[in-house]
Amino acid sequence: MPLSEPQPHRLILGIDPGTLLMGYALLDVEGQHVNIVKFDCLDVRKLDGQYARLQREFFFLQELIDTYHPTSLAIETQFVDKNPQTMIKIVHAQGVAIAAALSKDLPVYEYSPMKVKMAITGNGHSTKEQVADMLQRFLHIPDEAMPKHLDATDALAIAYCHFLQLRLPAAAAGGAKDWTSFAKRKGLADSSLTTPNQRLLAALNKKK
Question: What architecture does CATH give domain 9-206?
Fold first, then answer.
């Protein structure tokens, strides 16, 4: 994409599906500039029964879409758990979120947990805490604005992962081609460090 060509404005809705807590995040993208509109969790733990919770999530997402008019939905998929019942419940929550988006003609993009973690930290096996910490540093989120539940930062990570995917065509025009290049430009990576874990630890230590 030529540098002179204007880049479209986008509003990405990121969803971390869950049957008790559903993380959501809205990320405003103007060219290469990113701003957080909001990120939080929908808590449905007080509702009685799985279907009542799924219904609340469905209508909540429809209301969110009607209010903010996002241009795309990015959602985490391919969840794997040793407990088959947990997997089934998460798949139900994923389906509800996707159905809510499709009911509003919103394009849906799916990302695996490993891909999201790799995009944010450079390590596909990072912890939720490491992902949240890296997002706080990249997006300059003050401590008091960090949410109580990590489901919210997971949703933000999914939205940011989608943003990075959108940036890939700009790599030939000087954009970052991968996490390492992006982190080097941000002063978060040392070229002498070769593994994702080493780069992550160096980035976290450097910004403390």
Answer: 2-Layer Sandwich (3.30)
